[in-house]
Amino acid sequence: MAKSIINNSTTDPNKILPMSYPWARQHYKNGVANNWVPEEVVMQQDIELWKKTGVGALTEDERRMIMWNLGFFSTAESLTANNIVLAMYRHVTNPECRQYMLRQAYEEAVHTDTFIYCCDSLGLNPDEVYNMYEKIPSIKSKDDFVVNLTKSVLDPTFNTKGPENIQRFVHDLVGFYVIMEGIFFYAGFAMMLSLLRHNKMVGVGEQFQFILRDESVHLAYGTDLINTIVAENKEIWTPDFKKNIRDNIVKGVDLEDEYAKDCLPRGILGLRSDIIRKYLEYIADRRLERIGLDKVYGSENPFPWLSEIIDLRKEKNFFETRVTEYQTGANLDWE
Fold first, then answer.
1. Quick check: 150 and 83 in contact, CB under 8 A?
2. SS (H, E, C) 258-291
3. Which domains are assigned to the chain?
4. Known catalytic residues?
5. Interval 178-195: pLDDT, tens
6. C or N terminus of the chain, fewer CB within 10 Å?
């Protein structure tokens, strides 16, 4: 008898065959094909530019944008790892899904290591970087919002028995996968890849590309997981619940918008916070549609160049400094 995606025994051996959800296995294979570590990225050009003063040096606004993104991402990656290890793995009891989450947990560790590597390479004060989530209001607001959205699954007494608890679980999954990984990371991706586009901080930019690729698989897995739970428990997908989910996503866009304004008090590199707002609306609509909800904004993508960078299918040898090339670009939807 086939098992459901949740509410199986949590202690049975990992009977991964036969599989009930081939998509989870595919996401696992995509993650393996993406394998990388930060030390593969050469940072010498970044180090020289970071230390440079005078003509050709980074502007104060560029430095601010870089520091704000390092400050947010450095702690956000540990938040996502905590959710996987302490909560999601316990409640998603299907073996092939658990196999993927083990892979994702490893990738979150690599992402955390990336920011250690960046701090060490650039000679940054780690206390300054890692405490920005407490000292910068726009960063703290995002982190607090996600912590509040995912508090049910981190409650040691929580379980997924019954429609109400399954609904709470899906609510938290949307907070974790759709809002945290699918919206809160993307203004930062646009900013850092814009730097790379202008041949600035290319090592950090390449690492953000690698992280973006990983996050694209995380998002794809998360939306498949949410949709499967809903399909197997249709009674939870009520009009009120769908409105609550949609309202949370809209709030996430607003918080990311405030963060973008804080990162970019003035426009740089062809970026302005109002343009990033349009991009956030565009990707939020796509997130909504991926989980079966109607679009809210109707905005178009203001960054066609970003789509070209994200879509690896258009590149024959995208990462010139890589020993190996990514293998599964045609399988994923990057935005």
1. yes
2. HHHHHHCCCCECCECHHHHHHHHHHHHHHHHHHC
3. 41-321 (1.10.620.20)
4. 117
5. 999 999 999 999 999 999
6. N
